[in-house]
Specification:
The chain is an alpha+beta fold. Helices cover about 15% and strands about 40% of the residues.
Length: about 210
């Protein structure tokens, strides 16, 4: 049995649905990774110093076809288009829902931030019945998921956040230097380090930079 690709909506719905089926399985998809390098300090060797690998965008292309039923294909494609709309409250502002793209054993967690719709077949009335969709996710993997995805769990420290934790205390215990709290904040995309930890931070896993 062929497994169908799906988009699972983790913190919202589209027209009451938590799962959207991709009508036909993708033709292809692209996962982009990039390496970042630390700037060379004075007196160091000329070669750049490798820092980390970052998960970049995930782009997938799929087809939708309603010619057989003579119905408007946009009824199906618009459901995916709605995933770009900021409908979820977060930190005082709205954002699009977090989604999980699933196809067999492959998964990718992120927010859809770009969608290209190309309509290629029409009824005599001008109603489109075939479309090619290319949608792009922006990764928002947690530090733990990031570590598992990149296979770095064994080589980098992680820290589970508790109520009593502060970034300077974590830096002192994990890196033996409280002044390195900023590196932990930057590594884990913590927007408000002074207010850390907030309620939603408790239980999260932080990646401790080398």
């Amino acid at each position: 049995m062929v497994e169908k690709a799906q988009i699972k909506i983790l913190d919202g719905t589209v027209d009451g649905n938590k799962i959207l089926d991709v009508m036909f399985n993708p033709v292809d998809y692209t996962v982009s990774l990039s390496g970042t390098f630390k700037p060379k300090k004075k007196g160091q060797e000329s070669r750049p110093s490798f820092d980390k690998v970052e998960i970049k965008d995930f782009t997938v292309k799929s087809f939708f076809d309603t010619y057989e039923t003579q119905s408007d294909v946009r009824v199906k494609t618009n459901k995916i288009a709605k995933l770009l709309l900021p409908t979820v409250e977060g930190r005082g502002r709205k954002r699009p829902p977090i989604c999980l793209f699933v196809w067999g054993k492959f998964t990718y967690k992120g927010i859809i931030h770009k969608l290209d719709q190309k309509f290629t077949m029409f009824l005599e009335t001008g109603i489109p019945v075939r479309a090619e969709l290319t949608f792009t996710f922006k990764s928002i993997a947690t530090p733990k998921e990031y570590a598992e995805y990149m296979g770095i769990g064994a080589s980098r420290k992680v820290w589970t956040v508790k109520n009593s934790d502060r970034l300077d205390l974590i830096a002192h215990r994990a890196l033996k230097d409280a002044a390195l709290w900023r590196k932990i904040a930057d590594e884990n995309n913590i927007d408000d380090p002074i207010a850390f930890p907030q309620t939603h931070d408790i239980g999260k896993t932080l990646v401790i930079p080398d």
